[in-house]
Amino acid sequence: MDSGFYSSFSGFAARMDALDLLANNLANASTTGFKSHHEFYRSLSAALSSQPSLVQPSSLSGAVNQSINQFGVLGGSNLDLSQGTLENTSNDTDLALEGSGYFAVLTKNGVRYTRDGSFILSKERNLITKNGDIVLSEQGSKNNKPIQIPSGKIAISPDGTLSVDGSLIAKLRIEDFPQGTQLTPEGNTYLSAPEGAAKPAAAAVRQGMLESSNSDPVRASIALIELQRTAQMMERAISIFNNDFNRTAAQDLPRV
After folding, report:
1. pTM, two decimal places
2. Computed from CA positions of residues 38, 43, 49, 51, in that sequence, does the dihedral angle turn out positive or negative?
3. 90 Rama sector, left if φ>0, alpha if ψ -120 to 50, beta otherwise
4. What's phi and psi for 67, nearest 5 deg?
5. Could you list the pLDDT tens digit for every one of the 256 residues in the chain?
């Protein structure tokens, strides 16, 4: 009986966490450069898991109970780094990356990486993000050099070279990471990476375009409905087990 209760509770808690992930994906379906998360569940039983257990079962029933109770726990989420659709804006400071790579920007927390290329010019004519963070130049990368743009017609080539009225100004700092590098989301569009992990990217810059979110609102909505239904079923199961516990306690209490 206890195994059924705790199994239902762990499954319910995992689905509630997954609902938060899906709701965030859905809320950012129109956020430029957003990368969605996909949940995964640790469905291996405790008996087969290589992780040490805090409870050492003294019998076969104890091992079965432990395995059941650890079923269906949310293992975490994977960051989907696939490219979104490139959309034309005709704005000279809007930039998109075609291929693997990230724009390097300087925030108050240090260098961060983003696919959101909806840049603007500051009062000092520095290229900045919508959050006011400085877009970095490849030149002087160790010193985190900003890109200052004089008045004139801005042109940016596919390799990230920026020119104004035909005069070269700077080159965008665009970096990539080896497969398997742990990238940590910060906010909706920023990523942090281990120090020293970055390498030059082969992505092509597309001026006057932006990369849309890679979150599919239709799939996210369907998955959200399915998760809600599953969570409701587990909530009902918890209620049933709880009622059984109360009934058993009420029957046994007079015998004590």
Report:
1. 0.72
2. positive
3. left
4. -65, -45
5. 455 666 666 666 677 777 788 888 889 999 999 999 876 655 544 444 445 444 444 444 444 444 444 555 555 678 899 999 999 999 999 999 999 999 999 999 999 999 999 999 999 999 999 999 999 999 866 779 999 999 999 999 999 999 999 999 999 999 999 998 999 999 899 999 999 999 989 899 999 999 999 998 888 788 778 877 877 777 777 777 666 656 665 565 565 5
Per-residue CA distances from 202 to 60, 99, 101, 102, 175 (Å): 56, 7, 7, 10, 8
Could you tell me the residue ranges of all domains in the chain? 2-81+215-255, 87-211
Q: How far is CA 78 from the centre of its chain?
A: 7
User: Can you say whether the dihedral through the CA atoms of 197, 203, 207, 211 is positive or negative?
Assistant: negative
56: exposed, middle or buried (Cβ count in 10 Å: 0-12, 13-18, 19+)? exposed
Q: How many CB atoms lie within 10 A of CB 95?
A: 27
Tally Cβ neighbours within 10 Å of residue 96. 28
